[in-house]
Amino acid sequence: MSNNGDKHYLRAATRLGDFQPVIAHQAIYSSVGVKLIDSGVRVDSALYDRLLKHKLRVPIEKCLRAENTVTRDELGALAERLVAERSFYGQLVADVDDRAALLGAIARIGLPPPIAFRLTVARDCHSAVFEHSMQVTLIALYLGIRQQLAAGELRALAAAGLAA
Predict the structure, then answer these.
(1) Distances, alpha carbon 157 to alpha carbons 90, 107, 154, 161, 164, in Å
(2) Which of 24, 39, 66 is the last residue of a domain?
(3) Sequential DSSP letters for 110-133
(4) pTM value?
(5) Average per-residue pLDDT in the chain?
(6) Is residue 24 within a helix (H) or strand (E), and if so which, with residue range?
(7) Within a domain: residue 53?
């Protein structure tokens, strides 16, 4: 078995390529320098076993790009929907200033390509995990707002919540 981390994530990342273009934007190498996949190759579930057999030099999400990745706007829309539809989250941001701080942190979150790819895998392959990550983010931001964290700290907290 490989030492790639989570084989379930690797399966989901390669499965994503079965229903949308996922391209290796850089060659993927094993930890001992064997080229497994060349740059420009479309990656799908047919490549899962090849990747699973090797420890990778760099994490898979740093090598792959999906066509339709998660955006800040999409994250903001999900946060707004959860706040509107679920009374618990609505109560967290009942105060207008709290709501603005929370949604502002999500709107300005940094989404480097590897993070956007991981979130896209979650959104498209495990939607419950994606929504759970946003729920963790909302609670983390609420706690950060209560602690009067600065805007930059709230953005970092939002990124950490999404990675949970």
Answers:
(1) 19, 13, 5, 6, 11
(2) 66
(3) ---HHHHHHHHHHHHH-HHHHHHH
(4) 0.89
(5) 92
(6) strand 22-24
(7) yes
> In the predicted model, what is the mean pLDDT of residues 55-70?
95
Specify if 2 maps to a domain: no
For residue 53, the one-letter residue type is K
Nearest to 98 by CA among 134, 64, 147, 164: 147
CA distance 70 to 48: 23
Q: How far apart are CA 35 and CA 14, in angstroms?
A: 17
**Cβ(63)–Cβ(28) under 8 Å?**
yes
Q: How many domains does the chain fold into? A: 2
Using DSSP bridges, classify how beta strands 28-29 and 22-24 pair: parallel, antiparallel or unpaired: unpaired
Beta carbons within 8 Å of 99's beta carbon, 6+ residues apart? 83, 93
Stated as kind and residue range, the H or E segment containing 161 is helix 151-163
How far from the centroid of its chain's Cα atoms is residue 99's Cα? Answer: 23
Measured between alpha carbons, how far is 108 from 77 in angstroms, rounded to an integer? Answer: 13
- The answer on 100 and 130 residing in a single domain is yes
pLDDT of residue 5: 57
- Asked if residues 5 and 51 have their Cβ atoms less than 8 Å apart, the reply is no
| Residues linked to residue 56 through DSSP beta bridges, in sequence order | 30
